[in-house]
Design goal:
single chain, 299 residues, alpha+beta, 5-stranded mixed beta sheet, 31% strand
């Protein structure tokens, strides 16, 4: 009997030692796994930034995936260094949006990055990587990026693509008077760029007619349209100049124009008088003679 209890104590000691060793082994494995999960992308910022550490890690992880997809002889053990330039932070409602270019000199690749924090919608991605065809040091880089799944077009912007003739174009989200509009820039033909931008929007599930589209060619030109029974109005309106006015038709159930509405962000007499004059001149010059109603201090 004494021998039994002696053996039992030895087994208990052995079990404790085994459990201790097992815990140490698991801890070591966890440390290794967590260390290996750290993306092997290093970002060198030329200026300070306020990106939270968790979001910055997401940026590095997304970049690692994209660089891997675009690098023929990708090496998992190499730490790739990206040099950040054109860094800009913009407040947007309760969020902050940062966008910047990352150049990988060793790979001769450039990417545009947009990161938003904190997230408004937990289901939407808050890091977007796109091809920096116009802004990067290596604009000819073939670029495949991750496809996002979201119903907010801002999560896809800025977007940079190519027209059918090979020109670069860029779509950016902007706000004026609380209204979202999409600005289109290009180093080629602006009409072709707008066609390409609309095609891209359709390809990711967004209807271009739901958005104000503007081509930046020295001034803002409204190229979107609304559906009314008046074809001339459809071609010329809505019309919009950021922070000056937004002009659009008000229609009945049959699409007949009832009147033209002009929202003016300005509040002072000078701002409103100037905006009213510009609106009336635009409508008269384009043969639109419906009554006009003005709304002031719109934001």
């Amino acid at each position: 009997m004494k021998e039994f209890w002696k053996n039992l104590k030895n087994w208990q000691k052995g079990g404790v030692i085994f459990v201790a060793l097992l815990m140490v082994t698991v801890a070591v494995i966890l440390v290794v796994v967590l260390t290996n999960n750290d993306p092997k992308i290093k970002l060198e910022f030329a200026s300070s930034n306020n990106i939270p550490a968790s979001e910055l890690k997401k940026v590095r992880q997304r970049l690692w995936n994209v660089v891997k997809d675009n690098t023929k002889d990708f090496n998992d053990s190499v730490v790739y260094v990206g040099k950040v330039r054109d860094y800009k932070e913009t407040p947007e409602d309760n969020d902050t949006v940062a966008d910047f270019v990352v150049n990988f000199d060793e790979l001769k690749q450039s990417y545009q990055v947009m990161v938003t924090w904190p997230e408004r919608d937990k289901e939407s991605p808050n890091v977007v990587i796109s091809c920096a065809l116009m802004d990067g040091d290596y604009p000819e880089t073939p670029c495949a990026t991750e496809v996002n799944s979201t119903d907010n077009i801002m999560d896809y912007l800025p977007y940079i693509g190519k027209t059918e003739s090979g020109s670069d174009y860029k779509v950016s989200g902007k706000y004026s008077g609380g209204k979202l509009y999409l600005e289109i820039k290009t180093n080629g033909d602006i009409d072709e760029a707008v066609v390409a931008a609309k095609k891209w929007m359709n390809s990711i599930g967004f209807n271009p007619d739901d958005y104000l589209l503007y081509a930046a060619v020295g001034k803002y030109i409204q190229l979107n349209h609304s559906t009314t029974a008046d074809l001339n109005v459809n071609e010329k309106l809505p019309y919009f100049v950021p922070n000056v006015f937004y002009v659009y038709p008000v229609v009945d159930e049959n699409g007949t124009v009832k009147f033209i509405k002009a929202d003016l962000p300005g509040c002072t007499d000078y701002q409103t008088d100037s905006a009213e004059e510009q609106v009336r001149n635009y409508l008269n010059n384009n043969g639109i003679f419906y009554p006009v109603e003005f709304e002031y201090c719109v934001n």
